[in-house]
Amino acid sequence: MATKLYVGGLPYSTTEDALKEHFSQAGDVKSAVIIMDKMSGRSKGFGFVEMSTDEEAQKAISMFNNQEFEGRKLTVNEARPMEARSPRGGNGGYGASNRGNREY
After folding, report:
1. Three-state SS for 25?
2. What are phi and psi of 12, to 5 degrees?
3. Residue 78 vs residues 23, 42, 45, 57: alpha-carbon distances, Å
4. In this structure, what DSSP letter does residue 99 have?
5. What are the residues facing 48 on neighbouring strands?
6. Rounded CA separation 47/94 (Å)
7. Per-residue model confidence as pLDDT tens digits over 20-67
C-alpha cells in the first residue's frame, strides 16, 4: 500500500497544520496538503496526507475514515494516481468552431 492518502470531506476552514496534527495521532506525517481552488483561493474540501510507513497509513485509514473532524465526516483512503485528462479543444467544448463561417 502507498503511504499517500486521499482525505475528502474536509471543512473549508481546515488548515494544513491542523490536518497534519490530526493525522499525527496515527504516526509520523511527512506532509499534509489541502488542495486550493486557483480562482477563489478557497479550499476545495480535500487534500492529501503522506505517512512515513505503509503501516501508519493503514492505521490512519482505520482511525479516520468515516470519522468526524471539525464537524464533517472524512473520507480517507489510499491515494490513486491522477488520471490523464484529454486535451481541451480550442472552442471550449461548446461546438462553436464554425461560428464565423456562416452564410447569410
Report:
1. coil
2. -65, -20
3. 14, 24, 17, 8
4. G
5. 6, 33
6. 31
7. 999 999 999 999 999 999 999 999 999 999 999 999 999 999 999 999
- With cell 495521532, the residue in question is 25
Residue-number span of the structural domain to which 26 is assigned = 4-78
Do the domain assignments include residue 64? yes
Report the CATH number that the domain containing residue 19 is assigned in CATH.
3.30.70.330
| Backbone dihedral angles phi then psi of residue 33, each to the nearest 5 degrees | -130, 130
CA distance 20 to 6: 13
Q: Is 18 contained in some domain? A: yes
pTM above 0.85, yes or no: no
Is the residue at 32 inside a domain?
yes
How many domains are there within the chain? 1
> What angle (nearest 5°) sits at the alpha carbon of residue 15, between those of residues 83 and 45?
40
* 10 occurs within a structural domain: yes
60 secondary structure, DSSP code:
H
